[in-house]
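Quick one:
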Amino acid sequence: MNAGIPQEFLWRRLHSLTGLFFALFLIEHLLVNSQAALFLGDDGQGFVNAVNSIHNFPYLPLVEIFLLGVPILIHMAWGIKYLQTSQPNSYHHSGTVPYLPEYPRNRAYTWQRITSWILLFGVIAHVVHMRFIDEPIAVKVGAHDTYLVRIQKDEGLPTLAARLDVKLFNKDAVESEATKYGQAIPHAHSVEGQLLEQHQKRAEALQKRPLGENQIIAEAPDFGTAELLIVRDTFKMPLMIALYTIFVLSACFHGFNG
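Output:
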């Protein structure tokens, strides 16, 4: 009799192991983002500090690629294969497979498959949204980097921007910056020339993302503040609140049940 471990069992366990990276990242993500939920009181300073610490982490791109991106992509690709062959048995079928709704683990298995589909599209949409569409643009002015993000105007934004040391640029202000620095010729190798060149690059960056109606560019003093403005802007929309609620609940169930 062959007493070895079935190969299919080993593949399933390896698939679960790659999912562990997702679960650990989810815990970190929930802890950091919960600081943005405490926005009232300290203007989200806990979130800003946490995001800046992560952003300044040594070898962050390598960590994101090899400890997050690669394991999660493997888990997703592997999961698509299992989704195509899975047979949930906690609801009525045609009679070709067992129907056993009385067992909690069977229902959990069904919801694990359902949340898999939600996360498959949700994770892709979230990464595209936060890392490509709304990724802050870094611009060096003087000795420090500043970060530009495109957000919607609202009544409370000016007072908040003043507290967070954020500059706001509407369409007219963006055009004014382009006019002010677009024609100037920097003096080579001088401090003034280098600063003027930086301002020119900043004026160009302000124009990279065209502004729609009721939109402005916010210039934040650090990456964490820029991300806080993006989170705040996202959750001003009821549709995004609903979608992210479903997304986060699905991620929590899928990660911790798995």
